[in-house]
Structure formats: C-alpha cells, structure tokens
Amino acid sequence: MEKNAILIRSGASFMVNAIQKNLEEAGFKILPVDATVAAVNEKHTEAGIFVFYLGEFVSKASDLLVYLKDLCAEEEKLLVLLGTSEEIAIVEKTIPSMLVAAKFERPLDIKVLIDEMNFLAQASDASARRKNILLVDDDDTFLKTIKSWLSSTYRVTIVTSGAQALMYIADNKPDLILLDYEMPVTSGPQVLEMIRSETKTDKIPVIFLTGKGDRESVMKVLELKPDGYLLKSTSKEALLKSLEEFFEKKKYEQLHEMPK
Questions:
Q1: Is the distance from CB of 115 to CB of 137 less than 8 angstroms?
Q2: Per-residue pLDDT tens for 90-133?
Q3: Topology alike, domains 4-128 and 132-256
Q4: Which of 150, 167, 185, 216 has the most CB within a 10 Å radius?
Q5: What is the 8-class DSSP label of residue 59?
Q6: What is the 3-state secondary structure (H, E, C) of 85-147?
Q7: How many CB atoms sit inside 10 A of residue 34's CB?
Q8: What is the longest distance spanned by two Cα atoms in the chain?
Q9: What is the CATH number assigned to the segment(s) 132-256?
Q10: What is the pLDDT of residue 256?
Q11: CA-based nearest residue to 4, from 124, 163, 166
Q12: Dihedral, CA atoms, 161, 162, 164, 166, nearest 10 degrees?
C-alpha cells in the first residue's frame, strides 16, 4: 500500500513540523509544499492524499481552493483539512463537503489523524486500481459487446449463468456485479437473493440489467432493492458514465461512513 501524502502549508511552523514528523514515523512519505497553485501543481501527481494545514491565509487563497476542488473532482484526490472551524468553513464555501475526505479542528489528536490517514491510504490504493466488474448474462453476444465497451476502463469477468456467478464470487470479490434480470434456470432475482443471504457476499453491489423500461417492469426490479438498474439498450457512453458516477458515489459513501 502506497502511503504518500502532500502536506500543503504556508510556512513551516512548529505544529506543521510536528505533524509531518508524526506521520513520517507512522510510515508515510510526506511531501511538504507551499500553499500556492504552482507549488501544488508541481507535486500533485506524486500522491493521492492532500493534507491541507489551514491558516488565516485561506480567506485570500481562492485560486488555490478552486484548483484543489478541480483536482479532487477530476483526479479523485483525497483532501484532509486541518484548521479552525472558521477556516474549514471558508474552504467549504469553495470545496463542497462531499469532496473533503476528512477534516480535523485544531488542536487535533495526532493518533486519530494517523488512523484516518491509514484508512485513506487504503482507500486511495483501492481507488487507483482498476475496478473488477462481474458481468452475468445468458446472451453471449451481449456479453462480448459490453465487455469490449468496459475493458479499457475496468477489469471485466463474464459468466453466462447465475450458477457460474455464485461459483465465481465464492472465491472472488468483484467491486460490482452487473446482473441480467431475466435468465433461465436461475433468474437474476434468485441470484441476488442468494448473494444477499451470505455475509461473505452481501455487501457486493449489484446492478440489474433489464430489457424492459416500462414503469411496471422497472418498479418490479426496484422492489428487490438492488444498487441500481440499467437498460440493456443503454449506449456505450451512457453506460460508462453511469458506472463512473456509481463508483464515485460509493467511494465517498465509504469515506464518510468511517467512524470518527
């Protein structure tokens, strides 16, 4: 697991140095940079976590805040804010709370910060790898088409039946299952029920694939409480966008569900 973090600060105060020292002793490689767009831009590719030590200067750092907002949104950087409640509030006028991975008011508990940083390092590592999608459908042509659409972005495993899907997840944990709603022998709803009944698999997200888009059919699908549904007629561009939005939402849910 990579434990690199960029420490953004305005000057190297005693407290900033102490935070850097403690994080380095906890196994992190800390890259300190000045609180300017140019300085952050020069180093931004070297870490997935940004620790931003705030100060009074943030009220006049609008360019930097806009730049960090764009980095967090477009490159999935994880932003940690360290500051007073007033300083954090100023930052969040520009950077929405959903783009802030964690925030700590000073004076802070360094042990809690280290625990959070370790959690974020794991999350950043998982985010950096390509997501694994299990695609389940009895239509071989459809499987090959969708796999060709997704393979440049995701690792895709295909199976042609519910039984094969259950055998696969017995030994593997995909990040998402795209599951055909209507399949012979073992239907999509039956597969979902079996997935949800096992503690080992019940947290795996499942999105149904359905060929019917009428209200009655959609409501029937949603009654089973999957993590979503997609029409089989969805275009390549719309499918990729839907999956990107799904994984982005899951990432922030996981980050903000961590007990503080």
A1: no
A2: 999 999 887 898 999 988 999 999 999 998 888 777 666 778 99
A3: yes
A4: 150
A5: G
A6: HHHHHHHHCCCCHHHEEEEEECCCCHHHHHHHHHHHHHHHHHHHCCCEEEEECCCHHHHHHHH
A7: 15
A8: 67
A9: 3.40.50.2300
A10: 65
A11: 124
A12: 170
SS3 content of the chain, % helix, strand, coil (to 5): 50, 20, 30
Where do the structural domains in the chain lie, given as residue ranges? 4-128, 132-256
| Domain 4-128 of CATH type 3.40.50.300 | no
Distance in angstroms (rounded) separating the CA atoms of residues 53 and 39: 15
Provide the edge-to-edge strand list for the sheet that holds 176-180: 155-159, 132-136, 176-180, 206-210, 228-231
Please give the backbone phi and psi of residue 29, each rounded to the nearest 5 degrees, phi first: -95, 110
* Interstrand relation of 132-136 and 155-159 (parallel, antiparallel or unpaired): parallel
Amino acid identity of 145? T
